[in-house]
Amino acid sequence: MKLILSLPLIWTLFSTAGALVCQTCTDTRCSTTAPQTCSTETMCITASILATAAGAAAPQTYKACASSSLCPATGFQTLSVSLAGFRAILSAQCCNSDNCNSETLPTPIPQPTNTLQCLTCDATTSQCTSSVQCTGVQDRCFIATMTTGSTTAPVLGCASSNLCAAASGLGALPFMQNVGTIISRPVCCGTSLCNSVLTTTTTTMTPKTTTTTTMTPKTTTTTTMTPKTTTTTTTMTPKTTTTTTTARKTTAAAATTMSATQSATTKPTSAACSVRLVIIHLLLGLLVFTFF
Questions:
Q1: Is 232 inside a domain boundary?
Q2: Residue 267 predicted with pLDDT over 50
Q3: What is the pLDDT of residues 157-170, one digit of tens each?
Q4: Computed from CA positions of residues 46, 52, 53, 56, in that sequence, does the dihedral angle turn out positive or negative?
Q5: What average pLDDT does range 145-162 have in this prediction?
Q6: If DSSP codes are grouped into helix, strand and coil, which group holds residue 29?
Q7: What is the torsional sign of CA 136, 140, 143, 145?
Q8: Can you spell out the DSSP letters for 40-78?
Q9: 30 three-state secondary structure
């Protein structure tokens, strides 16, 4: 049980013993330093910076633990950046042994201009159409997004290729905390005025992707439209009332005609019979009179 409890302590002591120790500045001017045990960093860095803003130069010193993005290898390197109204050049040295960054490097001197020009933004108008002349080792144009106070705006300018590489790994431009906070990874390009806000080209190394396309047989669905057949049966019903009425009228007319005919016939017949009877009576009377 005691062995189990002591294992984490042994591991912590072993990890601490194997971690790198670097000198770190205790104030903004780095007038004093103190040893610091690095967490995951594998390098120590010491740097001297010359920053120029609005024509005023301010030297700075920086010492701390450094990641592999800022210090990809041991040795000396020069990093530089230029914005509208701001320039910075820094001399840095990276090492990988305990307290190897205790030395303070001399302040770098301003560098002459080169042939590269990059677009930059005017702080007063926020227009990113003016250009800045790059200097010294600045061989890239870049574009990023910076937050200063409550304002967020694009930032464009010149940078050295090693500063672009460091910024891509860090997600920010190093040693520019006094200018503002970079909130997006800078995009760098190598030709004059290539860092336009509208035409900046980002080169991304995309892993090769294999796309498998499955050919699905085309299925044709035939829909037969059966017309709806409506059968209408029309029954011709004779108009009974009219027919019946006509028949009745016809029967009545016929009956009337027959009655009239019978009457007409009966009247002459009755008259003839009466005449005959009278004649018969006269003859009988004559006969009786003759015999008696």
A1: no
A2: no
A3: 999 999 998 888 77
A4: positive
A5: 88
A6: coil
A7: negative
A8: S--EEEEEEEEEEETTEEEEEEEEEEE-TTT-SSSEEEE
A9: coil
State both tokens at 155: 């930032």
Closest by alpha carbon to 140, among 174, 180, 190, 81? 190
For residues 136-150, give the mean pLDDT.
89
pLDDT in tens, 8-53: 444 444 444 579 999 999 988 899 999 999 999 999 999 999 998 8
Tell me how long the chain is.
292
β-strand partners of 159: 81, 140
41/63 Cα distance (integer angstroms): 13
Q: Quick check: is 282 in a domain?
A: no
Domain contains 116: yes
What average pLDDT score do residues 271-281 get?
Answer: 66
Kindly state the helix (H) or strand (E) to which residue 81 belongs, with its residue range.
strand 75-83
Tell me how far apart the 2 most distant CA atoms of the chain are, in Å.
205
**Residue ranges making up the domain that contains 148:** 20-189
- Residue 91's region, left for phi above 0, alpha for psi from -120 to 50, else beta, is beta
| Other CB atoms within 10 Å distance of the CB of residue 97 | 12
CB neighbours of residue 114 within 10 Å: 14
For residue 239, give every residue at least 6 positions away whose Cβ sits within 8 Å of its Cβ, in sequence order, or none. Answer: none
What's the distance, CA 63 to chain centroid? 45
Give the H/E segment covering residue 14: helix 2-18
Asked whether 148 and 183 are in contact (CB, 8 A), the reply is no
CATH number, domain at 92?
Answer: 2.10.60.10
Higher model confidence: residue 237 or residue 141?
Answer: 141
In whole angstroms, what is the distance from residue 33 CA to residue 102 CA?
8
Distance of CA 81 to the CA centre of its chain: 36
Identify the CA nearest to 63 among candidates 111, 19, 95, 110: 95
Is 251 a member of any domain? no
Q: Domain total for the chain?
A: 1
